[in-house]
């Protein structure tokens, strides 16, 4: 297949084909690099979406056709050099593969029903591409498909993805629509699917899948800017038994409706006069009619107008923070903010209908239903960040969680929910701290009674995760339930947030009950070894004990004793006492960071990455650890460790995230840390002060006020905090309250090359903790 002159012009032709949106290079969106995290273990995608958008339209580069694995959890890897197609649903940074719904691939030569293999060019509809011919920014993605001779551009509304294809002069405009494709093994995943031709420029359909979440239903409506000249719809399941795509299909290609488990369609639009074809794809969890109605979100065929709307939406969302910093750091932090605004994602039709966890259809009233909650990760920093920057959206999240509890067949809050369906992934009942944190901060629109009822229902649901044993023994016994040590301490923290909220609501008996349960972490802490350990139902710690061991199904969840022994963020003074005082905690955390660890120790654990000693920044249990020195009167050590973490765990390359972004948690950590503070204990209404990494950041708050953070004398050498003022007055405390931020004002750090070892040493300067010092 010989490229035409148009397509051999390389990057210059791409620049002409994909003109930049006329925006100043100083806009927040222009500072974002959407390719950060698309390599290594970041698992992010570079495609087009809106802030928290339902459509997340992105290229998929799976190495083997329809055989997805962990590295391709987001569908795209920067290391790959061929594209399978462009699908409309993706996870950003998840540690599990799924989605990749409704894949489209434009081409112009003969129809090939197989995707083919990257090492065999032209073996299928897959096409090679080069990064020099690829461009992306928030809300927009473009690439030249070198084998297929098509220039592709993508942009998105909230529920609609818009494609623009430019074909070679005189070439037929063809599109492969593949419902077999997904970021998963289709043979195991597809329960049923349908394609329905409606007139000469629309196809609708659906897929029901049993991937990560069983019984997930997704409907779509595809509208084309030109009428179909011919079409062929095939069902491959009869001939191939889910093993390949070499069979001839199961019927003639002129059917208006085809159903089955392995559907694909070859669509031909002839030779467009302008060489272009545009395609709109709307999705719905409710029905094909719902998807058709969602198309009204994007009337007309003005690609540039829709691209500008997407860019404007991102500038508005990212514009909640104005950043002045060195170029690399500015790019890293704006990209972190971008990644923190991809999920939870909108998941309801324009009329407010959505599909709940019981697979029934519901109507959202007074809120916008969202799904895709990676709660074990995101309760730590992402949701607290939204309480500052996007409080109205966070209220939508909270109300979506409560609605899901009311609609759940189990009567509990989501654990790890996507597209309305429960996956039961990870541990804890971490919707609870998300709700409590928002309520404690006074976010409007949350029904406290409904919320507390949902929270306690989850905390009392015995069949889930060994809770019946936790309530009986005061800890989770390892001989009765796996990952027992981790579950014990995570349940204890969640219980504390229930107590905090109940106390604020005046429910004293509930508060007392859960404050008591919040102390259960002590039952699994071994003061002799100084580690959190799994305990058996007879009250004895399990032997033998090795603090480095970390296996799924053992004592800990995605970690070892070295990562989990510091997880009582609501009661760090209690931890300090168990470790023998301030020096005990400081020495223990020093050991975490300074240990000489053989790189093979955690090699069998793909989620333990970003190691600094035993500190594993690539996974969430470590995320608060550097801030613990503040509780022991040594914030200068926190500053020292944060410098070490940021320098080694983040950069502006495709592999710029040390672990899975986990739907924004890894990025939210960087955003908070760059500002100079972090929510160690969501629900405390406090942020622990670290050190800033930005010369200046202005938080443009939704209430119209501004909170400015300045770092005087910040440089690579001046990495320590000499002093801090808040609104012109010296700040003795090593924490900020949420109301101090939302009131507006100015926080000024004076930086130094030498640590100030006296600041924050006093007991009354330290952050909140349940146990008194």
TrEMBL record:
<dbReference type="GO" id="GO:0005975">
    <property type="term" value="P:carbohydrate metabolic process"/>
</dbReference>
<dbReference type="InterPro" id="IPR050883">
    <property type="entry name" value="PNGase"/>
</dbReference>
<dbReference type="GO" id="GO:0006516">
    <property type="term" value="P:glycoprotein catabolic process"/>
</dbReference>
<dbReference type="InterPro" id="IPR041371">
    <property type="entry name" value="GH92_N"/>
</dbReference>
<dbReference type="GO" id="GO:0005829">
    <property type="term" value="C:cytosol"/>
</dbReference>
<dbReference type="InterPro" id="IPR005887">
    <property type="entry name" value="GH92_a_mannosidase_put"/>
</dbReference>
<feature type="domain" description="Glycosyl hydrolase family 92">
    <location>
        <begin position="291"/>
        <end position="752"/>
    </location>
</feature>
<keyword id="KW-0732">Signal</keyword>
<dbReference type="GO" id="GO:0030246">
    <property type="term" value="F:carbohydrate binding"/>
</dbReference>
<protein>
    <submittedName>
        <fullName>Glycoside hydrolase family 92 protein</fullName>
    </submittedName>
</protein>
<keyword id="KW-0378">Hydrolase</keyword>
<feature type="signal peptide">
    <location>
        <begin position="1"/>
        <end position="24"/>
    </location>
</feature>
<dbReference type="Pfam" id="PF17678">
    <property type="entry name" value="Glyco_hydro_92N"/>
</dbReference>
<feature type="domain" description="Glycosyl hydrolase family 92 N-terminal">
    <location>
        <begin position="32"/>
        <end position="284"/>
    </location>
</feature>
<dbReference type="InterPro" id="IPR012939">
    <property type="entry name" value="Glyco_hydro_92"/>
</dbReference>
<dbReference type="InterPro" id="IPR014718">
    <property type="entry name" value="GH-type_carb-bd"/>
</dbReference>
<dbReference type="GO" id="GO:0000224">
    <property type="term" value="F:peptide-N4-(N-acetyl-beta-glucosaminyl)asparagine amidase activity"/>
</dbReference>
<dbReference type="Pfam" id="PF07971">
    <property type="entry name" value="Glyco_hydro_92"/>
</dbReference>
<dbReference type="InterPro" id="IPR008928">
    <property type="entry name" value="6-hairpin_glycosidase_sf"/>
</dbReference>
